[in-house]
Amino acid sequence: MTAPIAAGVRTENAGETKRDHKLEGLRGYLALGVVVYHVAFYAGLTSFLDLPTHGIWTVLADGLSVCLAPFFVLSAFFLYRPFARAVLAGTKHPPARPFWWRRFLRLIPAYWVVVTFALLVFDINKIDGFWYAARPYLLMHFYWPNAPWITGLVPTWTVPAEMLFYLILPGIAVLIGRYARKAATLEAKRRRMLVPLTLFAVIGFAWTVYTNVPSQLDTAVVYNLWYWPFGYYDAFAIGMLLATVSAYHQVSGKTPRSYAFVAKHPNVLWALALVVFVVNLNRFFGKLGMGDWASFNQELVIHALVLLFAGLIVAPLTVPGVRSRLMDITLNPRPIRFVGRISYGVYLWHMVVVSLLLKQGPLFGNTPGFGPELYGAANFWWLLTWTTVGTIAVSAVSYYLLEQPLSKLGRRKPDPAPPAAEPAVKTGQAVEVPAAP
After folding, report:
1. Rounded Cα gap, residues 1 and 4, in angstroms
2. 3-state SS assignment for residue 49
């Protein structure tokens, strides 16, 4: 399980920088879920091998593993939508270089600060050469054979995973555009855009299959294959699919059937997400509440359920104007929205705070322990309280002094405003499609 990634709840084009409070609220809950999941491990509440469990608390803590995938879905939704809109409208894609620059500023500087802190405070005595220190700065700390795990940076495999998605997204959009623009109607273009996204999802799920095949387990352990970016391409694909539907609505002016259904029944998908969450609590190929469920079949079931949960929990919030009393009550509290706003800092810093509270490293006169060595090392409520307080405090500082100023720097030269919606066309009606740029 890892922590959230830096997707942000602002889109990448001028004219679309208004915050979405509902999505901020969702990110807040997901970020707190990640914190609780990791704290529960160090308090000995999550399932781990054959160690004693704590009944329903172990089961619920294990269930919070669903909190990661929605961040990938949100990231792909916001970042791909301008590209999808360009394909459907027949206009130029957003330029790649400004896109990459903004994403670099959003993701890397704050991450480098955490890397520097972790190396100096926890791992200074373990540095045995140039590459030990250089790997995390170069986003290669999980791609090295038998790479040592660096205290404080354990969840940060999501940074290189997300960065690779940023790097390839403009190219993927170009390929999708070339394929989709051969269609004669707007509806046909939308359908064509879904074909490459399906392939993208298949690649992601195939990687999960490959890395959990029993014959590949030794290789997966040596190379940390579970933490390579390809394993969540299917989550990115879900976000890109939602972005395609949203872009179609913006360009055509038509209301997709899925939007009409969600508008009429705004809470149905959330109810289904709750069902998926409960189903995922039951480890079908192991003993409930025990850590013996890490089998090939179980990993595939968990991965599929996590993806389904991510799509269901995010999808209703991508439909314009959809509201319900449940959404208003749960997603609008200011403290939750604030946590969502600073959630990238929460992701980066919460394991650093946990390591400090557990007194790891030379600062406390010891060699920092690896995760399993610290299983059950603290009282849950004590560790959760101080981890939450400390993480929010340092994340707020990171957001206001570093992340927000750098984000403003990246937006000084915005992309052109999105194109005006074209007149709605009936399915099957031919329209003139401008040539690809």
Report:
1. 10
2. strand
Task: Give the start-to-end residue ranges of the domains of the chain.
Answer: 21-410
* Residue with token string 């100023």: 405
Using the structure block, give the residue that is written with the tokens 């960065």: 163
Q: Given this model, what pLDDT does residue 338 score?
A: 97
The residue among 306, 283, 307 whose CA lies nearest residue 295 is 283
- Closest C-alpha among 166, 112, 117 to residue 139: 112
pLDDT tens-place string over residues 375-429: 999 999 999 999 999 999 999 999 999 999 999 998 876 554 444 444 333 333 3
Q: Do the beta carbons of residue 226 and residue 303 sit within 8 Å?
A: no
Query: Is the CB of residue 73 less than 8 Å from the CB of residue 233?
Result: no
Token pair 């991508």 is at which residue?
Answer: 318
Amino acid in the structure at residue 1: M
Cβ neighbours of 313 (radius 10 Å) = 25
pLDDT tens, 324-348?
999 999 999 999 999 999 999 999 9
Would you call 305 helix, strand, or coil by DSSP?
helix
In sequence order, the 6+-apart residues with CB closer than 8 A to the CB of 181 are: 87, 90, 189, 433, 435, 436
> Which residue intervals of 90-185 are DSSP H helices?
96-121, 130-137, 158-180
List phi, psi (to 5°) of 323. -140, 155
- Identify the H or E element spanning 187: helix 186-212
Q: Is 90 exposed, middle or buried (0-12, 13-18, 19+ CB in 10 A)?
A: buried
- Cα–Cα distance between 107 and 164 in angstroms, integer? 12
Residues 74, 314 contacting (CB under 8 angstroms): yes
Is residue 300 within 8 Å of residue 59, measured between CB atoms? Answer: no
Beta bridge partner(s), residue 49 = 291
Distance CA(280)–CA(288), nearest Å, equals: 11
Residues 343 and 392: their CA atoms lie apart, in Å, by 9
Select from 82, 64, 80 the least CA-distant residue to 72.
Answer: 80
- Tens-place pLDDT, residues 89-127: 999 999 999 999 999 999 999 999 999 999 999 999 999
* Residue recorded with tokens 């929990």: 313
Chain centroid to CA 178: 28
The token pair at 160 is 């290189």
CB 360 within 8 Å of CB 366: yes
Q: Which amino acid is at 198?
A: T
Q: What dihedral angle (degrees, nearest 10) is formed by the CA atoms of 37, 41, 46, 49?
A: 140
Cα 225 to Cα 121: distance, rounded to the nearest angstrom: 28
The C-alpha atoms of residue 89 and residue 189 are separated, in whole angstroms, by: 10
